[in-house]
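Trying the structure run again after the queue cleared.
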Amino acid sequence: MDSKKTKAVAVIAAVAMIIAAVGIYAVMSSGGGSPEGSRVGTQLSASELPDADSRLWVYGNANEDDRIDDSDIAYLNGIVSGSVEATELADANCDGRVDQKDLEHLEKMISSEDMRVYYVDNYDTVASVSWPVESIAIGYCSGAYCADLIGVADKVTMVDNTIADYWTALNTNFAEASSYGGTGEPDYEAMMLKGIDVYVVGYCVAGTDEESLSKLNPAGIDVMFLTTCDNSGIDRPNENIDRTIITMAYLLQGDMIKTYDYLAWHDSIIVTLASAVAGTEQDSAYLMGRSSPTDLNADISITGYNNTNNLHAEWVGVYSIGMHEAGLSKNYQTISMESIMTYFEQYQNSGYEVFYMDNCHAGLRQQYDLQANMALDAQRFAGMADPPTILGMAREAGNSPLYVIELAFMQNVMYPELTLVTGVDYAELFEYYFENFASEDYYDLLDLDQFFSVYVA
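Done. Tokens:
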């Protein structure tokens, strides 16, 4: 080997040693570096996000499963010793390195000590919440149904005007809570006077979310962007409702046993429905309407690309027209009845059975009557040679923990032959959910046909 090559190899080896040393220092060092929580506010790139199969996106969940426990301490020890690779969530104290301090932070988390806990929110941004959490403000059906499910309804001291107007039946505490106004224009002064610990937004709102942080954080109120709803003015899908539920439950110090029971039930249904359609051809297609004007020729708001309901429909074998058409590229857009009927005719000509889903504010909210809306829809499409089958689903059913029942409903009515294979029936799931996961007994107030329905003339 000549001298130039020898020098080149030596340089490469030296660089490799330096890189290795830096890597070891970043993982092993317990001194210096950035302070705890210095990563808060950092938006993670796609490659930096935790494992997609993990649902508990809380820092300290070192092995990135669905629990924070002693197995994470063992995994962190492995990272520090160099026997296993570091993960995104291993940086328990969010200072940008994985070391002994993370072990100490994790041990405090497991002991539920008074401290700050770090997580990844729906913006893929590093955020934090202070423990203990004793008083929270919640909004919209996302906040109402999640708080009811995860066992934090007793911590709710403020609600938005939609919960105050429509969802107080879910829990006595919601009726007694004061209102902070609308999710789009929250009354920050009222929140500060109330002295809440955490504001859990009802849904993410462009512009308002930045203002919420700037107004409430200096007052010592944490703002949590974890919701089960589609966003307003923000082009981000929000299909991982189960991830939101478990992360919210942990951060708000809710009932984790009940939450894990829900997830086990949820997972068994999802797996059963998805397995039934695996490898089969999609021959049912649908469009979802978000408005039902009395003028039968008026334009309709239609869900489109990356809408939560459309993403979920495809999980269970339903072809979501809104996911595949260039003219439906937004989460929702208003289009003419002529355009809607043209889509249906095109898909019918391609061999699909077509369905129209009316997705209105029915359900417990009862701002609209689902049966009346579907009757209007039937009139809208009466002029077609082969009208679509009319379905109805309350919007709160797809934007809450109830969404797993939404999936069963879609598959039951659009692929009825699969019900014999799966044994899954949406009506039975509806009853099971409220019998096992509701915080109070309000089942008698519910009308299944105002949540899910197939139109019969």
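The mean pLDDT is 92. Worth checking whether this holds up in the mutant runs.
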